[in-house]
Structures are given as structure tokens and as C-alpha cells.
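## retry 2 of 3
previous attempt timed out at serialization; input unchanged, resubmitting
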Amino acid sequence: MADVIKFPGAPADRPFAEPEAGGADTETDFDALHSEAFRELENRLCDCVNMAKLAFDQICEHKTDNGELVFAVAHTWEMLAKLKRDYYATYHNEKPGGLHTSST
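## retry succeeded, writing output
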């Protein structure tokens, strides 16, 4: 994306805006940076889903009258599991399953 007015000495507002500062200077370079960032999310996303599942399993075994706590833990796991499915759908160039559906 080209700047309409370029101010000398103005800092770049995006890491890919200034090639002389080590940023990307073409759309291809930006796409490569974006792709790498997307791929780097995989392990962290999977870790979050696994931790949420463990919390869900624990809360199901715990006797509590706090319905909001149970809902929050269960729904967090559902949302993260859906995010993981959508991540892999996008990664495999498939259509994700919708914005805010949370069925697992």
C-alpha cells in the first residue's frame, strides 16, 4: 500500500511499510510475513485448546453450584475448539464454519 504523502523522518506505522527499516516493500513480502505469522499461531492455538479442554474436564468432575463458572469454562473450550477448526479449514483453503457458532 503506497502512502499518499510521505513525511521525511516519520516513523513507519506498520513493520512492512519501510523497506530501509527491514520491512517488506512489496505485497509478496507482506504476504510472506502474514503467512509466517499465521503458521506460528498453530502451536499456541493447540495449547490453548488443550488447556481449555483440561479445565472443562476438571470442572465437570467438580461439584459446584456456580453455573456461571461452569458455563464460562465450557464455552471457552467450545470457542477455542471452533477457532482451531476454523484455523485448519483456512489453512487447507476450505471455508471456516461461520463466525460465532460454538458447537463442537
